[in-house]
């Protein structure tokens, strides 16, 4: 299962959000052996940036861990609105 989390950050908060995202990535790597990819859309819209965290090959229910760590590291509080979480699973290859 892969999890994609996307949300918006005010452009003025981007530097602080990057610091908090780095702390989140370190905790995920150390505590759960999960690598986190952090991406953002190249354009800004009305002073907001869209960011995405990507977690690959995680166990079921891991989204609760993600949100807990994001809250503890203060990244969630910088999100403007809802942190949208989507789950994707691999498809079996065609014969």
Brief synopsis:
By secondary structure, the chain is of the alpha+beta class. 32% of the residues lie in helices and 28% in strands. A hairpin with a 7-residue loop joins strand 2 and strand 3.
Description:
It comes from Actimicrobium antarcticum. This is DUF4936 domain-containing protein. InterPro entries: DUF4936 (IPR032556). Pfam families: DUF4936. The chain has 95 residues and is of the alpha+beta class. The protein has one domain: 2-Layer Sandwich (Alpha-Beta Plaits). It is 32% helix and 28% strand. It has helices at 14-32, 62-72, and strands at residues 2-10, 36-40, 48-55, 84-88. It has a four-stranded antiparallel β-sheet, covered by helices on one side. The model has no long low-confidence stretch (mean pLDDT 94).
The whole-number mean of residue pLDDT values reads 94
Helix content: 25-40%
Strand content: 25-35%
At CATH level 3, the topology is Alpha-Beta Plaits
Cα-to-Cα separation, first versus last residue: 22 Å
Please give the CATH class.
Alpha Beta
Q: Record the strand order, biggest sheet.
A: 2-3-1-4
Q: Which runs of at least 5 residues are low in confidence (pLDDT < 50)?
A: none
Protein name: DUF4936 domain-containing protein
InterPro entries: DUF4936
Pfam family, one: DUF4936
